Every structure is written in structure tokens, then in C-alpha cells.
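G., the chain you wanted modeled:
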Amino acid sequence: MNLSKTTIEPDFYDKIVGGVGLVGLLILIGLPVIHYSTLPDTIPVHFGLSGKPDGFGSKALIWTLPIIGALIFIWMTRLARQPKPNIPAKVTEENAAHVQRIAAKTIRLLATGIVLIFSLITHLTIQTALGKSHGLEPWFIPAFIILIFGPLAYYFTQLPKRNKSKQA
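Predicted structure as C-alpha cells:
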């Protein structure tokens, strides 16, 4: 079954998710734009497991996550229109459109989740650099888990199940 020739047009839900991702991307880019002139020359660039900064670098590094986040968001948004996933399910003529739509939705959810995570990290980096925070907040790890593993859970719970009795 070749899934690569079908274009998946976003439905209303996909447009909402994409809109949230786009707003997240604007925030991700806007935060450094707004705060760059007030940042000290050295900012936190890495946070340890405790959430406290344990690596520091030039304030120019504040642009790293916005650049990477923009590239990932653009790439994944394009990929969601024609996903070519390695599907861990039996793909048939009857379920191919459903499987591809699930893959497209998952890709959009992940793209939005990544942009939101990068926005949170950028915000917390700026707040820490300005002395308004002491690192990653306690809620960051649960937010990270939800934004990354939530879409993956959706993906695997929505895929059609393999019928093992018919496989030989």
C-alpha cells in the first residue's frame, strides 16, 4: 500500500492545532526580539535535572531554539500534508486514508508541542538570565511529557490493530 501519493488536507481540528503552533512560533521568535537588548552578555544555555542552570554562553545563543523551532515547525507542517510514516499497523485499501490522517494529525500535534516546549524553554531562559527565575519551573517536566508523549499516545491508540491470527 503506497501512502505517499495522497495529500491530507487539514480539517478544522488540524487548523486549530496549526494555529496554536503558529502562535507558539510567533511567541518563540518574539521573546528574544523583545528581550534581547536587556539580556546580560552571558545567559543560561543548559539546565540540569534539578532545573537549575548548569551551562552558560553568549546571549546570541538565545536565537538557537527559535531558529531550530521554526525549521522543525515548517518541515513538520509540510510533512503532515503528505505523511510517509512507517506504520506499525496493517495498512489496507480500506484503512489507508484513516491511517494517513492519524499520522498527519500526530505530526501536527508534535510540531505544535515542540514549538510550545521551545517557547517555554526560551521564556524560562530569559527569566533566569534576568534574575526573575532560578531555572526551569517544577511544572516544566510534566508539560514536556504531555506535549511530546500525548501525541504519541494518540497515534498508537488510534491506529488499527494488527490481526495476528491472519498473519503468517
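The longest helix spans residues 96-129.

Shout if anything looks off.
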